[in-house]
Amino acid sequence: MADFKRPESVLVVIYTGHEEVLRLRRKDPLDFWQSVTGSLKWGETVLDAAKREVQEETGLDAGKGLIDSGDVNRYPIHPTWRAKFAPDVTENTEHVFSLRLPAITAIRLDPNEHKEYRWLPRSQAVELASSRTDRYAILKLVPEKL
C-alpha cells in the first residue's frame, strides 16, 4: 500500500478574527481554490498531518492553535487524482480542522502545489471554494462579522 496515497486527508480552514479566510490556488487543476488540504502519510495521525500540511503549504506553524471540528467527510476521489490511489480505492475520508490567526499573515507557498494565495472575506471565500466540503467548512467554522 505504501506505493499509493492513503485515502485519508485533512482540510484546514485558516482565518482571522476579522473574517478573512485564506484561499490557495492550486497549480493543477487550474483555477481550483482551496483551504489547506493534504493526504495523511502511512502511519501518521490526523493531527500530525494537519500540522504538517499547514507548514508545507503556508510556512505557518500551527502549534497548538489547530482545532479539530469533529467533522469527517467521505467523497469520491476526483478523477484528476484517482491514479495516485490503489486501484480498488474510490473514496477519500477527510478530517476538518480550523486555525484562527490574530491577523492577516504573509504566506510562503509551496510552488510545486500552489500558484497564489488570497485573504478574502468569508462570503467571497465561500464563492471561490472549488469543493463542496471546503465551502461547508468555511460556513460552519468561520464566524460571520456581527
Question: Which short descriptors sum up this protein?
Answer:
146 residues; alpha+beta; Nucleoside Triphosphate Pyrophosphohydrolase; four-stranded mixed beta sheet; three-stranded antiparallel beta sheet
Distance between the termini: 48 Å
State Rg. 15 Å
Q: Could you state the order of secondary-structure elements as H and E?
A: EEEEHEEEHH
How many strand elements? Answer: 7
Strand content: 35-45%
Q: Can you tell me the residue ranges where pLDDT is under 50 for at least 5 consecutive residues?
A: none
- Look at the structure and name the CATH superfamily: Nucleoside Triphosphate Pyrophosphohydrolase
Helical coverage, percent range: 10-25%
Q: CATH top level?
A: Alpha Beta
- CATH architecture, by name, is Alpha-Beta Complex
Query: Mean pLDDT across all residues, rounded?
Result: 94
Strand order of the largest sheet: 4-1-6-5
The total tally of domains equals 1
**Structural class category:** alpha+beta
Q: Which shape, going by the Cα principal axes?
A: globular
Tally of helical runs? 3
Biggest sheet character = 4 strands, mixed
- CATH topology name: Nucleoside Triphosphate Pyrophosphohydrolase
